[in-house]
Protein backbone atom coordinates (compact mmCIF):
# COMPACT_ATOMS: atom_id res chain seq x y z
CA UNK A 1 0.00 0.00 0.00
CA UNK A 2 1.48 3.32 -1.03
CA UNK A 3 1.68 6.24 1.33
CA UNK A 4 -0.65 9.13 0.70
CA UNK A 5 0.57 12.67 0.34
CA UNK A 6 -0.64 15.33 2.74
CA UNK A 7 -3.10 16.66 0.17
CA UNK A 8 -4.46 13.17 -0.49
CA UNK A 9 -4.89 12.51 3.23
CA UNK A 10 -6.68 15.82 3.68
CA UNK A 11 -8.99 15.06 0.75
CA UNK A 12 -9.71 11.57 2.12
CA UNK A 13 -10.45 12.91 5.60
CA UNK A 14 -12.70 15.65 4.24
CA UNK A 15 -14.66 13.07 2.26
CA UNK A 16 -15.06 10.91 5.36
CA UNK A 17 -16.32 13.79 7.50
CA UNK A 18 -18.66 14.89 4.74
CA UNK A 19 -20.11 11.37 4.59
CA UNK A 20 -20.47 11.18 8.36
CA UNK A 21 -22.30 14.50 8.52
CA UNK A 22 -24.60 13.49 5.66
CA UNK A 23 -25.32 10.11 7.27
CA UNK A 24 -26.24 11.77 10.55
CA UNK A 25 -28.40 14.31 8.74
CA UNK A 26 -30.24 11.51 6.88
CA UNK A 27 -30.83 9.61 10.12
CA UNK A 28 -32.29 12.74 11.68
CA UNK A 29 -29.54 13.01 14.26
CA UNK A 30 -28.29 16.30 15.63
CA UNK A 31 -25.43 17.25 13.31
CA UNK A 32 -24.85 20.47 15.24
CA UNK A 33 -24.07 18.50 18.39
CA UNK A 34 -21.71 16.34 16.33
CA UNK A 35 -19.97 19.45 15.03
CA UNK A 36 -19.65 20.80 18.58
CA UNK A 37 -17.75 17.69 19.58
CA UNK A 38 -15.81 17.31 16.35
CA UNK A 39 -14.51 20.57 14.92
CA UNK A 40 -13.58 19.02 11.56
CA UNK A 41 -17.27 18.46 10.82
CA UNK A 42 -18.10 22.19 11.05
CA UNK A 43 -17.22 22.97 7.44
CA UNK A 44 -19.81 20.47 6.19
CA UNK A 45 -22.75 22.12 7.93
CA UNK A 46 -25.38 24.14 6.11
CA UNK A 47 -25.75 27.86 6.81
CA UNK A 48 -28.70 27.33 9.13
CA UNK A 49 -26.82 24.59 10.97
CA UNK A 50 -23.81 26.89 11.35
CA UNK A 51 -26.06 29.59 12.83
CA UNK A 52 -27.44 27.03 15.29
CA UNK A 53 -23.88 25.98 16.10
CA UNK A 54 -22.87 29.56 16.89
CA UNK A 55 -25.96 30.02 19.07
CA UNK A 56 -25.17 26.86 21.02
CA UNK A 57 -21.56 27.92 21.46
CA UNK A 58 -22.71 31.28 22.84
CA UNK A 59 -25.15 29.56 25.20
CA UNK A 60 -22.43 27.22 26.39
CA UNK A 61 -20.03 30.10 27.01
CA UNK A 62 -22.72 31.93 28.97
CA UNK A 63 -23.36 28.85 31.11
CA UNK A 64 -19.64 28.49 31.80
CA UNK A 65 -19.35 32.17 32.79
CA UNK A 66 -22.37 31.85 35.07
CA UNK A 67 -20.96 28.75 36.80
CA UNK A 68 -17.58 30.44 37.25
CA UNK A 69 -19.25 33.50 38.75
CA UNK A 70 -21.29 31.32 41.13
CA UNK A 71 -18.10 29.57 42.21
CA UNK A 72 -16.35 32.90 42.80
CA UNK A 73 -19.31 34.11 44.84
CA UNK A 74 -19.20 30.96 46.99
CA UNK A 75 -15.48 31.42 47.57
CA UNK A 76 -15.91 35.09 48.49
CA UNK A 77 -18.76 34.21 50.85
CA UNK A 78 -16.66 31.56 52.58
CA UNK A 79 -13.88 34.11 53.16
CA UNK A 80 -16.36 36.69 54.41
CA UNK A 81 -17.80 34.22 56.92
CA UNK A 82 -14.34 33.32 58.19
CA UNK A 83 -13.44 36.99 58.68
CA UNK A 84 -16.54 37.61 60.79
CA UNK A 85 -15.80 34.54 62.91
CA UNK A 86 -12.28 35.73 63.73
UniProtKB/TrEMBL annotation:
Region Disordered, residue ranges: 1-26
| Superkingdom of origin organism | Bacteria
Q: What is this protein called?
A: DNA polymerase III subunit epsilon
